Amino acid sequence: MSPDALPPALASRRRRPVRSLSPRTWILVLSLATAALIVTFMTIGLSGNLGYVLPLRATKVASMLLVAYAVGISTVLFQTVTGNRILTPSIMGFDALYILLQTFLAFTIGTQALLTMGAGTRFIMEVVLMVGFSWLLYRWLFIGGGKSLHLVLLIGIIFGTLFRGISSLLQRLIDPSEFVVLQDLFFASFNNVEASLLGVAALAILAASAAGWRIRNRFDVLSLGRETSLSLGVDHKGTVTQVLVICSVLVAVSTALVGPITFFGLLVASLAYQLSAVFRHAYVLPIAVLLGAIALLGGQLILERVFGFDTALSIVIEFVGGIVFIALLLKGSIK
Amino acid sequence: MITATPPAEAGSATARRRFPALHAVLAVLAVVALSVASLFIGVSDVSPAALLSDSDDGTAGRILLISRIPRTLAILLTGMAVGVAGLILQLMARNKFVEPSTVGTVESAMLGILVVTVLVPAAPLLAKMGVAAVFAVAGTALFLLVLRRIPLRNTLIVPLVGIMLGGIIGAVTTFCAYRFDLLQSLNSWMIGDFSGVIAGRYEFLWLVGALTAAGYFAADRFTVAGMGSEFTTNLGLNYRAVMSLGLVIVSLISAVVVVTVGAVPFLGLVVPNLVSILIGDNVRRSVPWVALLGAGLVLLCDVLGRLIRFPYEIPVGTVLSVVGAAGFLYLLLRSRRRVA
Questions:
Q1: What's the pLDDT score for residue B39?
Q2: Which of these, A31, A34, B206, B327, has the minimum number of CB atoms within 10 Å of its CB?
Q3: DSSP B17
Q4: DSSP of B126-153, one letter per residue?
Q5: Partners of A14 in the β-ladder
Q6: C-alpha distance across the termini of chain B, in Å
Q7: Which of A280, A327, A328, A263 has its CA nearest to residue A80?
Q8: How far is residue B242's CA from residue B245's CA, in Å, rounded to a whole number?
Q9: Phi, psi values for residue A14, rounded to 5°
């Protein structure tokens, strides 16, 4: 079933566009902006040993693009299957789990061993654990059905609190010099991404994308809700399960790659819905990814070049995203 | 305006059951027993035998006076006050799922301490508390303002907004702490811990005890104020004055507790709900119970924290965050069953 053959009910689900640009034009404009930012990022203030600087910058750009892709796609799909515009995978306790894992590893084997154990091993371990956790949580929360959105959100947040409680206990028992090493792992940063990790991350994302591509035609139907998609002949439970697994992989990859950025997905997805005049995944997904890339590249550029900060991007995103969240609640977008 | 009835208020058979005086006596005895146990648990040997033996040169007695008794008193005062602060906030917000550490009060107090520490590192403790209290009042007031503007006052959306607000304030605090290399000291305010409490370092908590008493006498006014401005005025009460009083009590308690022992998470949430389930929602009757159970729960968690990895200590805040998060999850899932 191609998107053009969708029932009129979907076509009529028009959102008020911010400007009168068509979604296709938006995608073009945003792509150009992203390309321009990539070029700027690679070339601005270029000096010194190019053979050293350029690969370093390329790694940063590549990791930002991967994160933008993973976060954008996973948030929009997650919101589609959960039928809401405010829940995101990260709000469901992912960042806290990441910190707990890092702390637990640092506590049991020491930061020295943690840093030298090989980025690949650590990465795979983290991804497997996080996919496992999120899979259990989502399954319990969503497949059972009948649970209110607010309840799900609160439970996710309380799980996060529980993880943080255990983390802080372990942090108490670590000596201060180890803690200094550990705290660097707590903040999302595009400066210390291992080049070797990028390959692994890209592969995982590629696999998840391939799985998603196979069921891409069902996304729009899913957004009509469970009843409608069932009557349109979609295996609802099976599809939702697949989408949730894809989300788990994408979020785990991005978190393990750069660390937790809880509200990034919420920001990007909310804006993407605003920009695309028609709610159709063929438009919303690319717009969300491009917006994410622009936010990361642009934000990092401004912070690095204008303010001379290194790792503050994630905290800025948290701050802005938290305010957007409350604004959405106040607007009554969440019912 | 339709407000969903918080589940525990939905008068079930258990909620109406009256507790006989016997239970009160038993509860008091349990807290007294825990307090006595708390006096004699620790690394140095302080036991009744050591205190009375002839060979003792007075060391045991001094430890008892300087460390153990202040610590136990601090625990009792904190437990009482934080429980009652949670109850008052729940009455003002008319929601059973909020407490100072989930609506931004505690986070605001921490931000206040951080600001003072960065700007005036040499400021005396009292000044730090003052600034923390001012920040806490501002943060709590912000929450109540946001709350009033929420179109749909769903039972669960209120704590959500509070937690997010606390998250935003926490992000600012973390950001500053990171820039100024204060992350680890921030950590020590984030987790309540009584191990540093000795004579001379806990006395401000008596203030918190006084505030708890004030909360008791004004308790039913907060119930009225929770019904809204017009309702309160109709009953001849000054709405603004009552709300301000509640704000100040809750914020001061939070600020003083954060400055002296650190945050005590979820206590103000779990204890009032527990009391509501056990004896119902008559506020006058429940305040003493909240105080008693609050003190008992903190004592129990502190004693546990001291025993789990003896001779090392696990901070009470950590034990409470695990116990409290589990308790909160239970309350959420329980309310769902009953609503459904």
A1: 85
A2: B206
A3: P
A4: HHHHHHHHHHHHHHHHHHHHHHHH-SS-
A5: A278
A6: 22
A7: A280
A8: 5
A9: -80, 140
Is residue A252 within 8 Å of A77, Cβ to Cβ? no
Q: Kindly report the pTM of this predicted structure.
A: 0.76
Report d(CA A281, CA A77) in Å as an integer.
Answer: 9
> Taking a C-beta distance cutoff of 8 angstroms, is the pair B261, B190 a contact?
no
> What distance in Å separates the CA atoms of residue A25 and residue A310, rounded to the nearest whole number?
34
Cα distance from B265 to chain A (closest Cα, Å)?
Answer: 10
Contact list in A for residue B171 (CB cut-off 8 A) is: 315, 318-319, 322
CB contact under 8 A, B321 and A179: no
A323–B contact, CB cutoff 8 A: yes
Most distant CA pair in chain B, distance? 72
Residue A2 has pLDDT above 60, yes or no: no
CA A50 to chain B, closest CA, distance in angstroms equals 31
Cα A176 to Cα B221: distance, rounded to the nearest angstrom: 48
DSSP state of B4: P
**A312, closest residue in chain B (CA to CA):** B175
Q: Which of A7, A26, A2, A1 is nearest to A277 (CA)?
A: A26
**B93 neighbors B158 (Cβ within 8 angstroms):** yes
Q: Given phi > 0 = left and psi -120 to 50 = alpha, else beta, which region is A93?
A: left
Q: Which residues pair with B203 in a beta bridge?
A: none
Task: Work out the angle between the directed axes of helices A313-331 and A281-301 (0-180°, nearest 10).
Answer: 140
Q: Answer whether B161 sits within 8 Å of A157, measured CB to CB.
A: no
Q: Report CB contact under 8 Å: B329, A148.
A: no
Are the C-beta atoms of B80 and B212 separated by less than 8 Å? Answer: yes
- Cα B39 from chain centroid (whole Å): 22
CB contact under 8 A, A168 and B160: no
Task: Specify which residues A278 forms β-bridges with.
Answer: A14
Please classify residue A144 by burial: count the beta carbons closer than 10 Å to its beta carbon, then call 0-12 exposed, 13-18 middle and 19+ buried. Answer: exposed
> Distances from the Cα of B283 to the Cαs of A219, B160, B216, B247, B300, in angstroms?
51, 25, 9, 18, 25
Nearest to B321 among A148, A154, A165 (CB): A165
Q: Do A168 and B265 touch (CB under 8 A)?
A: no
Residues 6 or more apart whose CB falls under 8 angstroms from that of B205 comprise: B73, B74, B77, B78, B81, B256, B257, B260, B261
Residue A57 has pLDDT above 70, yes or no: yes
Contact status, residue A263 vs residue A90, Cβ threshold 8 Å = yes
